[in-house]
Predict the structure.
Amino acid sequence: MARGKPVIVVGITGGIGAYKSCELVRRLQKSGFCVKVVMTEAATRFVTPLTFRTLTGEPVAVSLWADEPHSKVHHISLAEEADVFAIVPCTANVIAKLAQGRADDMLTTTALATEAPLVIAPAMNTHMWRKETTRRNVETLRTRGAVFVEPGTGELACGDVGEGRLADVNAIADAIEVEARRCRDLAGAHVLVTAGGTQEPIDPVRFIGNHSSGKTGFAIAEEAARRGARVSLVTGPVSLPDPFGCEVVRVQTALQMRAAVLARFSSADVAIMTAAVADFRPAAMSAEKIKKTDAPASIGLERNPDILAELGGMDSGAILVGFAAETTDVIANAQGKLAAKHADVIVANDVSDPSMGFGTDHNKVYFVTGAAVDESPVLGKPAIARDLLDRVAALLEAKRG
Ligand code: C5P
């Protein structure tokens, strides 16, 4: 992932604000970024690709079919190169397409293919901006982690006065720079993440387990890798594919998870334990499947080691993050765990609400540290991963002085 200048791909859609993107491109170049442009057909009615080609010195991508020959499929190479993908201006139509995951032109295909953070600066007529359907699309994208630079109020090209004007170019450039900085802020760090639930075998076909989907841990691992960290992800059995760019160790039991974590902890700068580790395991696993007729009335249990507490006891200097799923006294219990496990941060959530937490795509969490309790809004798990890693990056920077 180490490259020269960070690459900002600027996507331009068909609105009169497209002319302001020329200024944006210049400002980003002055700030030290390599800028590449992708336009919709409609955008080329407002500003020609030649303008951007001249400004950037790079080919401008417009069509999936008719561009200049390129060494790699162009939308994929752009998607991979992008440190940040900014869509400025972004029409209501393109916002709707992004929310639906449609990919019917060069710009939306690149947006769907990229792993880079999306910065979206909408510009449209006030009524279009306020429409329920647009609001919903914006919300959908926001919970997936897109950053919106809200439009300003003023005279619009259609003659109306109101909300919908493209935000100030400097504000847009600032938002892009924040994202660009963020995408390298864990460079050089080794981040160890646990995820999923463990399965504790009773016999060869049965186990004690839980409902953890692994989504939060996988989102954190993926986001940490995107931000330049070397990531080791130790996960219990889950049905998620390996996140891009991470070392993935798949284990079944708490003891296997502990061994995989301990083998990697000495080089870790950060350990983020999201796994729902089974607190107990059957004291003895039957080598044969237990017959219904011979089933014991009870199963003897043994306590599993608490991996996070064990890391906390080592005083290694690594930043330790734990998770706490609670149904009552969420904050007080999280503060108790923070102290008991010697963690730096506990991310606490209330799992009494079945619409959030385990297995869902959203969550509302509290970041509990020795100094403060910060409440997050309801966010998608990737957005929670980003918020958590912002905090971790700040702690790392403070530690490195
Ligand atoms: O004590 P409790 O299980 O609620 O603590 C949750 C936190 O501790 C999570 O971060 C979880 O990954 C970690 N943990 C662990 N090993 C265990 C139990 C919990 O690492 N055996």
